[in-house]
C-alpha cells in the first residue's frame, strides 16, 4: 500500500469516535487532557473538500478545507469554540485562508534578516 492511501481523506474517521483534541486548545481552555467524544464529517466538493470534527462536550469544532488531489494541500480552516466563564463566556471563531506558498528551505531562513519573506507571504 502506498503512502497516498495512508494520508487519503477517505481514511479520516467519520461518524462518532473518540479523539484527543489539540493540546494547545486543552491547555488554553483549562480542560483535562483526555480523549473526548467527537464526530467527523467529510464533505466533498468539485475542487476542494472539507473535513469537520466536532467535540460536543467541548463546544468546539474544527473544519479544514483541502484540495481534492494529492498532496491534498490545506487551503484553510475555521475553528469555533467558547471562551470564558459565566456571563463573560462568548463564542470565538478563528479563520485562516492560504494566500500564498513559497517552496524554500525553511530551515535556512529563520533569522531576522529573513523577515522580508513575511511580506512576500502577505503576513506583514
Q: For the CA atoms, what is the radius of gyration?
A: 18 Å
Indicate the low-confidence ranges by residue numbers: none
Number of domains: 1
Helix content: 10-25%
Oligomer state equals: single chain
Q: Count the strands? A: 6
- Order of helices and strands, N to C? HEHEEEEEH
What can you see in these coordinates?
This protein is mostly beta strands and 124 residues long. The chain has one domain (3-99). The protein is built from 3 helices and 6 strands. The protein has a 6-stranded antiparallel beta sheet with strand order 1-2-3-4-5-6, with no helix packed on it. The longest helix is centred in the first third of the chain and has 6 residues, at 23-28. It is globular and about 45 Å long.
Question: Top keywords for this entry?
Answer:
single chain, 6 strands, six-stranded antiparallel sheet, globular, 13% helix, mainly beta, 124 residues
Briefly, what is this?
By secondary structure, the protein is mainly beta.
Q: Any chance you could write out the topology, listing elements then pairs?
A:
Layout: H1 3-7, E1 15-19, H2 23-28, E2 36-44, E3 48-55, E4 60-67, E5 74-83, E6 90-97, H3 116-120
Antiparallel strand pairs: 1-2, 2-3, 3-4, 4-5, 5-6
Amino acid at each position: 500500500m502506498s503512502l497516498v492511501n495512508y494520508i487519503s481523506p477517505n481514511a479520516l474517521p467519520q461518524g462518532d469516535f473518540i479523539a484527543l483534541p489539540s493540546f494547545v486548545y486543552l491547555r488554553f481552555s483549562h480542560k483535562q487532557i483526555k480523549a473526548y467524544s467527537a464526530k467527523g464529517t467529510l464533505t466533498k466538493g468539485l475542487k476542494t473538500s472539507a473535513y469537520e470534527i466536532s467535540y460536543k462536550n467541548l463546544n468546539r469544532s474544527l473544519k479544514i478545507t483541502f484540495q481534492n488531489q494529492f498532496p491534498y494541500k490545506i487551503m484553510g480552516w475555521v475553528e469555533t469554540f467558547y471562551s470564558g466563564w459565566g456571563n463573560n463566556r462568548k463564542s470565538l471563531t478563528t479563520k485562516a485562508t492560504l494566500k500564498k506558498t513559497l517552496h524554500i528551505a525553511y530551515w535556512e531562513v529563520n533569522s531576522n534578516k529573513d523577515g522580508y519573506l513575511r511580506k512576500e507571504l502577505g503576513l506583514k
